[in-house]
């Protein structure tokens, strides 16, 4: 059985983030973390070009607490996603990350 690489990456990110949420004991973030991974993973994955996200991705971004999600991004997740693309997606969707804020260990320029 062949699995589309986007599906594999999305599932991997969901498992990593879900695991970090459970281990941290800090609860969950407001919004749809699984939806973010399902709809937006293809726009933030390594490698590949920076492209504008879909309306479905933006819909999930707008309903989510991106700052909270950023606070739970681990080094393992950062190996899979491109943080510059995360900044692009959130800005394109109308929820830009503040300059100087942290998303994982990445500092937003």
From TrEMBL:
List the Gene3D superfamilies. Answer: Plant lipid-transfer and hydrophobic proteins (1.10.110.10)
| Extent of the signal sequence | 1-25
Which UniProt keyword terms apply here? Signal
Q: Which domain of life is it from?
A: Eukaryota
Under InterPro entries, the record lists: Bifun_inhib/LTP/seed_sf (IPR036312), Bifunc_inhib/LTP/seed_store (IPR016140), NsLTP-like (IPR044741)
Domain Bifunctional inhibitor/plant lipid transfer protein/seed storage helical residue range list? 26-103
SUPFAM superfamilies under this entry? Bifunctional inhibitor/lipid-transfer protein/seed storage 2S albumin (SSF47699)
Q: Does the keyword Signal apply?
A: yes
Signal among keywords: yes
A Pfam family per the record? LTP_2
Its recorded name reads Bifunctional inhibitor/plant lipid transfer protein/seed storage helical domain-containing protein
Q: The organism's lineage?
A: Eukaryota, Viridiplantae, Streptophyta, Embryophyta, Tracheophyta
């Amino acid at each position: 059985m062949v699995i589309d690489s986007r599906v594999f990456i999305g599932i991997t990110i969901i498992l990593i983030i879900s695991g970090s949420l459970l281990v941290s004991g800090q609860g969950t973030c407001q919004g749809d973390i699984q939806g973010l991974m399902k709809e937006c993973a293809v726009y933030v994955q390594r490698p590949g070009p920076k492209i504008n996200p879909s309306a479905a991705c933006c819909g999930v971004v707008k309903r989510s607490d991106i700052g909270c999600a950023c606070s739970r991004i681990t080094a393992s997740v950062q190996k899979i996603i491109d943080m510059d693309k995360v900044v692009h997606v959130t800005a394109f969707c109308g929820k830009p990350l503040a300059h100087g804020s942290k998303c994982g260990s990445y500092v937003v320029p």
